Amino acid sequence: MGAAMTDKGSAHHYAFKIIPEKRLILEVHAGLTNLEASIAIKKEEVQHELFSSEYNILTDVRALRFNLNQRDAHGLFKYVSGRSDISSNKRKVAFLTAKSEQVAIATIYKMLHKENHHRIHVFSTLEYALLWLSIDRSEEQIADELKILSENLRP
Predict the structure, then answer these.
(1) How many Cα atoms are found within 13 Å in the side-chain-facing hemisphere of 114?
(2) Rounded CA separation 42/20 (Å)
(3) In this structure, what are the phi and psi dihedrals at residue 4, rounded to the nearest 5 degrees?
(4) Could you tell me the pTM of the whole model?
C-alpha cells in the first residue's frame, strides 16, 4: 500500500503517493511554483518513511504553472543531484505535461541531468509515460490514482 501527502497551504499544491510494490512514486502538482516551493516539496517527500531514491517517479505537472527560469531549474538540479538520498542513477523520472511552458522547464531539467546520466523524459500522454517507465499496471489504474491525488489538492 502506498502513502499520500498533500500541502494545501501554499500557491504550489501537490500530492504524492509512494507505491513500494511497484517501486513507483506518483506526484501531482498544481498552481504556481517557484524554486523554494519545489525544494520544500522534495524535502518533505524524501522524509517519508516509504521513500526510496531508487523508485521511479511519474510527475504530473499538467496543472502546474512555473515561476522558474533556467537559473532556478539549475538551482533545483543542484539541490537534487547533490543529495544521494534523493537522486539515483537507477531511477527513471517521467514528466507528464500539457503545455509548452511545462515541456520547456522539464526539458531544461532533463538537459541538466544528462551530465549525471539520470533517465528523465517528458511526455504528453500517460500511455507513453507508463510504457517508458515499464509500469505493468493498466493505464486506467494509474489514471485513477492520479485523479484521486488531484482531488486531494485544494485550489
Answers:
(1) 7
(2) 18
(3) -130, 145
(4) 0.81
Beta bridge partners of 14: 7, 29
Q: Does domain 3-151 have CATH number 3.30.750.24?
A: yes
Q: Match 513507483 to its residue by C-alpha cell.
A: 24
Q: How many CB atoms lie within 10 A of CB 42?
A: 17
Q: What are phi and psi of 132, to 5 degrees?
A: -65, -35
Mark 131-152 as b/e (b = at least 16 C-beta within 10 Å). eebebeeeeeebeebbeebbee
120, 95 contact by CB (below 8 A): yes
Residue segments in the chain with a per-residue pLDDT below the cut of 70:
1-10, 68-70, 72-74, 76-89, 112-118, 137-138, 154-155
- Cβ atoms of residues 97 and 60 within 8 Å: no
Distances (CA, A) of 121 to 71, 93, 94, 96, 148: 20, 7, 5, 9, 24
